[in-house]
Specification:
It is built from 1 helix and 10 strands; from the N terminus they run αββββββββββ. The protein has a 10-stranded antiparallel barrel with strand order 1-2-3-4-5-6-7-8-9-10.
Length: 153
């Protein structure tokens, strides 16, 4: 029996593989009322014979790591959506984001009681990644949690 092979959709995720580092602007929020800047680092690696990208993220502020996260991203061929399973050091339940590529921008979102989130990755420039996370209590009124600009090292 021949084993399945990653599709073009899975291969598109490979653009997230590598070591990324950049500056993040944290906008005022319930988690950080004054906002500020941070350094974000992500290590993305190909996994499961090319069907998934696993990422480990950490954010540093003032020389101290203040946030860590772990993501597993793949393409759901049945629903035709990209899926990110996200785990982090906040102690909350794992989050599942789903979305699509529109051109070179991957837009993912999830919603649940009391918290909705939208995450975008703009991969339109070689070895550059721009990211934004937006949050909403009701899924209607949105505010930006952070903007990040990263370079592949």
């Amino acid at each position: 029996m021949e084993m399945p092979k990653p599709t073009e959709h899975h291969r598109k995720l490979q653009r997230l593989v590598g070591q990324w580092r950049g500056e993040e602007t944290m906008h005022p929020s319930q988690w950080d009322p004054s906002g500020g800047t941070a350094t974000g680092r992500t290590l993305g690696r190909l996994a499961l014979d090319g069907f998934a990208v696993i990422s480990d993220y950490e954010q540093e502020r003032g020389g101290v790591v203040t946030f860590k996260g772990h993501g597993v991203m793949t393409f759901d061929q049945i629903d035709g959506l990209y899926v990110l399973h996200w785990f982090d050091c906040m102690g909350t339940r794992p989050e599942v984001f789903k979305g699509v590529f529109e051109g070179e921008v991957l837009s993912l979102s999830h919603g649940g009681p009391g918290m909705h989130a939208r995450l975008t990755y703009d991969l339109s420039r070689p070895d550059r990644l721009t990211s934004r996370m937006e949050m909403s209590v009701d899924g209607i009124a949105w505010s930006t949690l952070f903007d990040g600009e990263y370079t592949r090292e």
